[in-house]
Specification:
Shape of chain A: globular
Helix content of chain B: under 10%
Oligomer: heterodimer
Largest interface: A-B, 24 and 28 residues
Largest sheet of chain A: 6 strands, mixed
Largest sheet of chain B: 7 strands, mixed
Structural class of chain B: mainly beta
Number of helices of chain A: 0
Number of helices of chain B: 0
Helix content of chain A: under 10%
Number of strands of chain B: 11
Number of strands of chain A: 11
Radius of gyration of chain B: 14 Å
């Protein structure tokens, strides 16, 4: 079955440092979404990538979709304490079912 | 309607009992998803509906799990003969239908935390 892995599982950074999480799928995806889950909260949608090689930016966040549509990354520039949480990628096949990655838990040290 | 609501928020049950959870999606959303999330893991896809049709249920964890969306609005997830391993957060999400290549944003509810003792 489809598997979506993320690395690293945990990341501790000093406030102001950059952060990157990587997502890899065992199969080619039709599209990929990214979500953020704060401690004790529920996943909140960040963005969707559809096209091969697509890059999208949201303020300090940069999202990339690989050329083969099997991997993706999220990069945060100059982290802030408000960035704390777990970041999940969720890959979709043509069946419109989303399979979440294992998540990367980000801790920002003030 | 301000979002996806789930009821109850917490459920403690004895092993062997049946439990049912309810999800009310955003009213204009025709897709509804159920996920299970355990501590430190990502949401695990269980099943989804488009309107009242259950389009994928092979990922339901066992035949003790079943879901319905009888009128294409609210949905229920039932677990029969609960086991301690069923303890988890059960999340519901809803979205508008997308296309074959582009899905739409999924909005998650707060979840129902199940504890089986």
């Amino acid at each position: 079955g489809q598997q979506v892995m993320q690395i690293p599982q945990y990341q501790h950074v000093q406030e102001g440092e950059d952060f990157t999480t990587y997502c890899n799928s065992s199969t080619t995806l039709s599209n990929i979404q990214w979500y953020k889950q704060r401690p004790g909260g529920h996943p909140v949608f960040l963005i969707q990538l559809v096209k091969s090689g697509e890059v999208k930016k949201q303020k300090r966040l940069t999202f990339q979709f690989g050329e083969a549509k099997k991997n993706s990354s999220l990069h945060i520039t100059a982290t802030q304490t408000t960035d704390v949480g777990t970041y999940f990628c969720a890959g979709a096949n043509t069946g419109n079912q989303f399979y979440f990655g294992t998540g990367t838990s980000l801790t920002v040290i003030p | 309607d301000t979002g996806v609501s789930q009821d109850p928020r917490h459920k403690i049950t004895k092993r062997g009992q049946n439990v049912t959870f309810r999800c009310d999606p955003i009213s204009e959303h025709n897709r509804l998803y159920w996920y299970r999330q355990t501590l430190g893991q990502g949401p695990e896809f269980l099943t989804y509906f488009q309107n009242e049709a259950q389009l994928e249920k092979s990922r339901l964890l066992s035949d003790r799990f079943s879901a319905e969306r009888p009128k294409g609005s609210f949905s229920t997830l039932e677990i029969q003969r609960t086991e301690q391993g069923d303890s988890a957060m059960y999340l519901c999400a809803s979205s508008l239908a997308g296309t074959a290549l582009r899905n739409t944003e999924a909005f998650f509810g707060q979840g129902t935390r199940l504890t089986v003792v």
